[in-house]
Design a protein that fits this description.
Layout: E1 9-13, H1 18-29, E2 33-38, H2 41-55, E3 59-63, H3 71-81, E4 86-91, H4 106-134, E5 137-142, H5 155-174, E6 180-186, H6 194-197, H7 204-208, H8 214-227, E7 231-233, H9 236-247, H10 250-261, H11 275-290, H12 298-308
Parallel strand pairs: 1-2, 1-4, 2-3, 4-5, 5-6, 6-7
Bound molecules: NADP nicotinamide-adenine-dinucleotide phosphate.
NADP nicotinamide-adenine-dinucleotide phosphate (NAP) binds near residues 13, 65 and 93.
């Protein structure tokens, strides 16, 4: 085993698609070695190979499912066993589910809470303790503009991001006498695979509004993190929407968001233009197709489909 305590490492969850993929490129371009976390081993191999070739940094790819409660500790122990010190943690992996709360599947709701809240808190606990002990480190928590908007048809998701924001704001205060910084990133609707995983690709916000570019969102988050800023809302339109949330009553905000989440009359977009996010979707689709024609029982088919979201 080699000890790499003299080189800087960033651990990024959700590293294979969307913002996470863009964060990997930004850190690698600045000379950081990476610990890349996502569920798909195949996709991790593809993306880590690409990063190593392009930037010549070291990459530890970890295929791990943060829907499971034991995964965060497993990641921490694995990273330690490789002698890696994590200087920057990016808690990016997250998912949502579209639909009326009374109709969405309870297990899916609880999985989202596990991924977006419990695993994020656990990873923060493990790595933050070491950062505070070293008096050095940075953490980026990926929340959402929906953290400040009550959001019908995505109630559990929006509430999970409100947790991330409140949690981050509290910890920033607790860390005030240390050299450890924490930053919350609030992106608006962006051109990634998120909407497909959430089953919300028909929504008005996805079909009819200008989606943010994941590369730009990650760049905004990266710069704010490196400056030690508390919070960054990416994009002017989103900054204005965040400001509106401070003045309008919650009932009005919920009404605005309901319109955004309802199905669009016109369906134009079929997938993300962001290449890495499109590649992730193509891989999921190919895995799903390879099961076509197999004699799966309905229950097995549901389990398989859910494992891919
Ligand atoms: N896109 C938006 O409009 C938007 C707006 C605001 C906030 N956000 C937030 O931004 C973050 C990144 O989302 P994105 O838009 O970049 O989505 P994305 O393109 O779907 O990427 C999600 C990444 O997370 C990984 N992931 C998903 N479930 C996981 C699990 N259970 N365990 C481990 N890794 C998992 C995925 O890889 P595998 O599938 O292989 O695991 C992938 O690498 C999320 O926290 C999301 O809530 C997104």
């Amino acid at each position: 085993m080699t000890t790499k305590s003299n080189t800087k490492y960033a651990l990024i969850t959700g590293a294979t698609s969307g913002f996470g993929y863009e964060f990997c490129k930004l850190f690698a371009a600045d000379g950081y070695n990476l610990v890349m976390v996502a569920r798909s081993e195949e996709r991790l191999q593809e993306v880590s190979g690409e990063i190593i070739t392009q930037y010549g940094v070291e990459v530890l790819p970890l295929a791990a499912d943060l829907f499971l409660s034991e995964t965060a500790e497993g990641i921490y122990e694995t990273v330690k066993s490789h002698g890696v010190i994590v200087n920057v943690l990016v808690n990016d992996a997250g998912q949502g589910e579209h639909g009326l709360f009374v109709e969405t599947d309870l297990q899916r709701d609880l999985d989202i809470i596990q991924l977006n809240i419990t695993s994020l808190v656990s990873l923060t606990k493990f790595f933050l303790k070491d950062m505070v002990a070293r008096n050095e480190g940075r953490i980026l928590q990926v929340a959402s503009l929906l953290a400040v908007y009550p959001t019908p048809l995505m109630a559990v998701y929006a509430a999970s991001k409100a947790f991330v924001l409140a949690f981050t704001e509290s910890l920033i205060r607790e860390l005030k006498d240390t050299n450890v910084s924490m930053t919350a990133l609030l992106p608006g609707a962006s051109d990634t695979d998120f909407f497909h995983k959430a089953g919300s690709e028909d929504s008005y916000v996805y079909q009819k509004t200008n989606l943010s570019d994941p590369e730009q969102v990650a760049k905004d988050g990266y710069e704010a993190l490196m400056k030690g800023e508390r919070k960054i809302v990416s994009g002017l339109k989103n900054k204005m929407q965040a400001a509106m949330a401070n003045v309008l009553p919650d009932s009005a905000l919920a009404g605005l968001m309901e319109k955004q989440m309802k199905p669009s009359e016109e369906i134009k977009k079929e997938g993300a233009e962001h290449q890495a996010s499109r590649e992730e979707r193509d891989m999921i689709q190919a895995a799903s197709n390879s099961f076509e024609g197999r004699d799966l029982k309905n229950e097995e088919r549901t389990d398989f489909d859910e494992s891919l979201r």
